[in-house]
Amino acid sequence: MGFEIDWIAFVQVFVSALTATIVVVASYSLGLRMLVRAGRPPVVAPAEFTDAITVMSEKRRARAAKAAAKAAKRNPLTAAQKRWAFAAAIASFAVCALAVLSGLLLIVIGL
Amino acid sequence: METAALIVVLVIGLALFFDFTNGFHDTANAMATPIATGALKPKVAVLLAAVLNLVGAFLSTEVSKTISHGIIREDQITPTEFLPLIFAGLIGAITWNMLTWLLGLPSSSSHALFGGLIGATIVGVGVLAIDFGVVMSKVVLPAVIAPFTAGLIAFAATKVAYAMTRRNDAKPDGRDGFRWGQIFSSSLVALAHGTNDAQKTMGVITLALIMAGWQDSSHADPQLWVILACALTIALGTYMGGWRIIRTLGKGLTDVKPAQGYSAETSTAATILASSALGFALSTTQVASGSVIGSGLGRRGSTVRWRTVGRIAIGWLLTLPAAGLVGAVAALFVAWLGSWGIFIDAVLAVVVVLWIFLRSRRDRVSASNAMSEVADSGRAVKVTRNPPPTRRQRRATRAADSARRDARSDDGEGS
Prior knowledge:
B: mainly alpha, two-stranded antiparallel sheet
């Protein structure tokens, strides 16, 4: 009873999952970073306050929004630089979405 | 012939019920962290998970071929003896799934299914009817490797997410924006779950149809009605299971931050989708738990609670043999009593499922009950509220201190 284990397949799963995850997470993080650089830091309040949320309350959200607006005012970038940063943020989010869609497409067409 | 037809109908019904339990057992895998971080409202999260499980079931059929072509040597078993064994195996899987759901024990629906089928086949036919090479390469090894792989990937992704959004000047870092990202990443996990888990039931039904001679064995792809039935059942199970998780999560999960949740979900989805495409029947519970632990460790100042990790690991280890044992006992009835054994199995299964259902209604769902295995995985990592400074922050502090000292000494010389 010989055991034939396809180790290459395991490596393929690891490498493809790692690459996909890093591309998706890094591009999305870069998008957020660029939004902050563009003077538009996202302040996203929780859709619902569960017990698990210990770091965000309505009061804290308001405070965070105020701090974000203040930081945006003090942004040292010029208006043109901010526009570029915003465009870079959009491009990063687009890369993230494309990575997800292409991964799904590969699965649908059976690699 | 009529008895065989009746058994096929029973197997299909039982397989679909297993699919349903799989759906409500595994809702937490996709939706635990987005509900915990407030990325999605619980009702919306559960509905989204149900719809995406439905869609995911149509994406790929690679895993379904793993079950019907591999683990069990179908050529060594006659259809008349094999159909009751599938029936017994499913009883093992459902019983274990329901029991672990009631007790809040971490378990994998996939391993319960494999365990049940293997146990029933060993008792009904013999050890030689199992291809242990396939069991090893397609079930056991992925089960051991997958949580580590997903954990490692989630760890790296969390580090990347935090490093890329870190601000050393205490200004807003925009990490709240990961809540938006979580809506998509958790949707991907739900899609991956549908792709991976619904196929297991499709595989079982296809296997039963081939054994009964209702489908050509040279075309092992599941038929359209099988795909549709499995997709609808897992979606319904996910939607029904969701109401329990809302209450579970209402009692508090772990301190999951949006960046962490986003990284964990992306890692889970990527691992499951990559393995589904290559035909590995991974346990989504194990992958999601590995990701949650990995992303927790990716945060600065976190440590592992090894006792909790050990408890989760024991649950995983127990699933395959325990479901196998129940499947074996069910197969024993069939071996001893023939058609009467099937009848007794069916009656016992209905009684057990009803008892578990009624018991679950008597005890309100709590954090120690229901689908809390992913939440438990979060508890396996202890995260400090004030993480130690990064190397860059330490360097900046040292530079500021030395600048202050220099300024002070300059003042001293000046006066």
